[in-house]
Design goal:
The complex is a heterodimer. Chain A is an alpha/beta fold. Chain A has two domains: 3-85, GMP Synthetase, Chain A, domain 3 (2-Layer Sandwich); 108-171, no CATH class. Chain A contains five helices and seven strands, in the order H-H-H-E-E-H-E-H-E-E-E-E. Chain B has one domain (11-251): Ferritin, core subunit, four-helix bundle (Ferritin), CATH 1.20.1260. Chain B is mainly alpha-helical. Chain B is built from nine helices and no strands. Chain B is globular. Classes of the chains: A alpha/beta, B mainly alpha.
Amino acid sequence: MNEVQARSPSRTERAWRVLDTVLDPEVPALSVRDLGIVRDVIDHGDTLEVVLTPTYSGCPATEVIEHDVLAAIEKEGLGPARATLQRAPAWTSDWITEAGRRKLNEYGIAPPGPVAADGEAPIRIFGRKTLPDVACPRCGSLHTERLSAFGSTACKAMYRCVSCREPFEHFKAI
Amino acid sequence: MQSSIAVKADPAVQYMLRIGDTCLILGQRIAEWCGHAPVLEEDIALSNMALDLIGQARALLTHAGALEGVGHDEDQFAFLRDERDYRNVTLVELPRGDFAFTVVRNAMVSTLLKLLWERLGESSDRELAGIAGKAIKEARYHQQHAADWVVRLGDGTDESHKRAQTALNQLWLYTPELFEADAVDEHAQASGLGPRWADLQEAWQAEMGTILAAAGLAAPQASAFRSTGKRGVHSEHMGFMLAEMQHLPRSFPGAVW
């Protein structure tokens, strides 16, 4: 028998798989891994440490996610576990995985484009006219417009599609 | 009744409270718009920005507690200090006024915070640099949103222009305080903790100038008036605000949702 196949998955490998099943409570289309907030899983022998990076400073989901992650790991018998928050480098929407972007789109939320390299550029007066294109998650049209810079959660803005007339949410590039 | 905590006079703690309280108090003022903004989109926007600011304040107050080293946590700092121990600039404690007053103030404060976070990203304090790395993204978005509105109101109808200019005239009186140098700032500069706020003034004036020019608004003449919130001497509005913020944790110590 092949040695690699015979080896049973390690505690950390199993923990990573469990993390695939822990969903973001506010965007339940995505797992915490899809969202790109799990930095590391470290086996300290006695405890398992999960290192998380928060998305927005004021995101109320952060504490719920922490709780859900630990509960899922302990339920799988991989505990005791603890979560630590790592702020730097700051989370960016560029860390959302390809699978995560696809799931967002299927869920009806337009995924973020790449974070603009001009993040430090001066403010845009009449910024609305220079917004990047956002494709409608329903019909794919780029003929869309922003209705509101902010949405139902910190990470989203409101858009509408001028082609199919449907409103939709856009996960902000940040 | 829960009694007040005493806060160490340590300059690093004071510098942290100065930023944390400015975020906390503006967050509280902006949150007052929840359910009252002129349109739903702005109701949501203001609530979102308040959440970001309060999230930033939580991180900063927690870190102030770590630097102080006597076991104070974010809640004790937020709810159990006397008025004189709050270190926010007076500008953010002024009542929310009308929508023009709110967006002009948001443009002023988010421009200041954006410039500050940019510099704090290079702080010798790694925790503070980490907080800044996150907050800078939020502050940029807040500034862009506020600037859009200042232009829209200033360059809008006669009524919106009049209200935006009136707000600017009132708020401008409180801007010298932002850039006044003192020992806390000097200490932060010397230790590598963060910039003197005075060093942000030139960039702040340039960015505000761009926004105001596009909005057709004019900054009023400088005045001799000086507000002193950063030193803990606040306007008459602060006590009323704290009474509302502190009532529950003072009367019901340890209360949770």
